[in-house]
Amino acid sequence: MTVYADVLFLINFIINYILLFLTAKIARLKPIRWRLLLGAILGALYAVFLFFPRLSFGYTALAKFLFSLAVVALTYHIHGLRLYMKAVGIFYLVTFSLGGGVMALFQFTDIGASLGMVIKNGVFYMQMPWYVLLLAICAVYAVIRGVWGALQNRLSRENMYVKVGILWEGREAWMDALLDTGNVLCDPLSKTPVIIAEYQKLMPVLPQSMKDAVEKSGTVKIEEIQEPAVLERLRVIPFTSLGKEHGMLVGFRPDSAKILENEQLKDAGNVIVGIYEKPLTRDRSYGALLHPMLLGH
Hints:
two-stranded antiparallel sheet
């Protein structure tokens, strides 16, 4: 089998760049472009030097592992051992997934059966047109990115959504809540965290006087509520979001609030529930915005 150094370098450069780029995406790293290029170049040179007999000592299992550690360190310039080891693990995961995916693609399409193969210093080389290999790599790369994106989105949704229950005078209302890291609303006097909830979701727990006030004017107006027991529960919270600036959100202090997360029910502690008269989202996927303090974020 004839191996051309320039073609070997180019193919490995592209493969290494894809591996390093995909690792950065999954690990949420932001490498500098020239570092990605440098890492890919070093990996490509390493593959070319495989065919130099005098350099065979540099291709033991330990040497390969140490070289991969150096490439990851050089490419991403990470500060912190934990993040660095995470990047190394993801790099190997991506490498094995991409390599295994290409091999599986060749096997299931019978392409591999028609190709010659040579093993040099523990590395497999197939005698095939370079564009076939690159097309296969691009196909597997697209699959990996698609699967990882879907998985990441699913995990993100599961981590960001919880069930919240609001209890007041023996009445309760449950709704889906989004953990909103941008929700830093607190009662200005007590510094109690605020859960922002849609009026429609809160209707089962609100006293009739509050619902009458909303039906009358379209919003909660404290001056229209006469019940002392209700008034002492009400709070006024200033905010600068939710579609307008320097607004005032009327809230109330419930008897309690519960959070159902990962099938575990816990008490949210002291909270204020802010009443928002409009839908929080167009698709109605959630009815409340949860303060990150309530989940320890």
